[in-house]
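Incident log entry.

Two folding requests arrived from the same account within the same minute. Monitoring flagged them as a possible duplicate submission, but the sequences differ. Recording both here for audit purposes.

Request one:
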Amino acid sequence: MTETTSPPRLRHPEKAHRADQSQPRKPDWIRVKAPTSEGYKQTRDILRENRLSTVCEEAGCPNVGECWSQGHATMMIMGEICTRGCSFCNVITGKPDSLDVFEPGRVAHAVQKLGLNHVVITSVDRDDLDDGGAEHFAQTIRAIRHRSPGSTIEVLTPDFLKSKPGSLETVVEARPDVFNHNLETVPGLYPSVRPGARYFHSLRLLQRVKELDPAMFTKSGIMVGLGEDRQSVLQVMDDMRAADVDFITIGQYLQPTPKHHRLDRFVTPEEFAAYEKSAYGKGFLMVSATPLTRSSYHAGDDFARLRSARLEKLGRA
């Protein structure tokens, strides 16, 4: 009898037809060492035991070795399969599985076991769900609060573009300490970089969070090196401040595979320092702008600084 096997599932079926893009050699300032520490292995084992996904692995984050060695990981809920196919992203695209009702409890258990003072929870886009997964986010927040009441919680959410009314409110009412939603790039690049999203919808979502809870910290980030110019980055900063965003992250885009969006250039550390200076000048409470900056990189330390910056600002007022 002849054995038959089904063809392997493409990780990015929507990108398979694209011509390969060259991947230039990384400069010295962007290179990181392979993870080998005991702390890294312990974090990995706890995540495996609780059958949890992380954006650190799924998106191929260059900081995974450093963060996991310190017991920090960004947990990705609602599965590993995204309903969208952004050209920059390395997360699998396809039809997701149904939600796991026990996942919020497993996340809370892992947070407790890792002893996290600050935890970041993100997810894939779930356009297949009526609420985009908002209630699942809320349940995860509540489960962490129950198991680790001393931990601060940061969520990095989808845009809920196709969700029913009230979805955003569901997440905000669960009262995370930080609400993060990334704009990812400048508006002129949305058609090629983030075609399933809408720049002004994402901006309005961040503004709406502050309207619902003025005390909640808001955060957003972009990548550079995708083909934007400096003026367009400064305009995004102005747009974020108009939406009362507290914290901006700016990091270098790294092309995951030849099928992904072309890397335009490596932005120098000096340019990142100039972006940081401009962002503080525009009134952000907190700025992280380095080649290796990612949304949740050093998130716990940054949250402490963010909170201090607000208290200092209120004291001056």
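Request two (distinct sequence, not a duplicate):
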Amino acid sequence: MFGDRAAKAEAYRDLLASAGVERGLIGPREVPRLWDRHVLNCAYLGEVIEKGASVIDIGSGAGLPGIPLALARPDVQVRLVEPLERRYTFLREAITELDLRDQVAVARGRAEDVRGEFSASVVTARAVAPLATLYGWALPLVVTGGHLIAIKGRSASDEIAAAAETLQAMGITEAPEVLRVGPDEESGTTVVRVARGHGALRSAAAPAALKRRPPRSRRR
């Protein structure tokens, strides 16, 4: 999976188990399954990303899936986008410690904050939001002809159905795909891949629950 970067992948796993837990980015109960459930689970995305792609990973948190993807695919350029300061700080430190500064960058903010500033052929997300919300955050960052690739669970098809009207409202006509990546059904990863297409992208109305939510203040 990681080739000559296997040692870096192990170093990243160790960072998650130490600083990641200490700073509240990873739950202590996740430590025994960091390798399979988190690092490899995210690295499998490389199977469905074209060679030389540019990637924006929104809501990157502790660097998942962006850092494992970068380690497994040295040919892609990855930008991590994370709004919370303590996570942003951890990501900067991890990039430096893993010597990934030539391949991985990090920006502090939400997906909405970097719209118009950054774009990529692929936008990735893991445990960020339901698809109906994620579409509005992620698809404006995808260049025409690119894809949104979201890690989802076994209920991916149900999420797609629930978000169908949102996707239609945004002018996306191609149906999302549910793909299984990885070595087998037991240890693989379920992803939803959405083609951005080449037509104009429209803004979808925000769900009512989101409209009622007061805006968050951003720490500087």
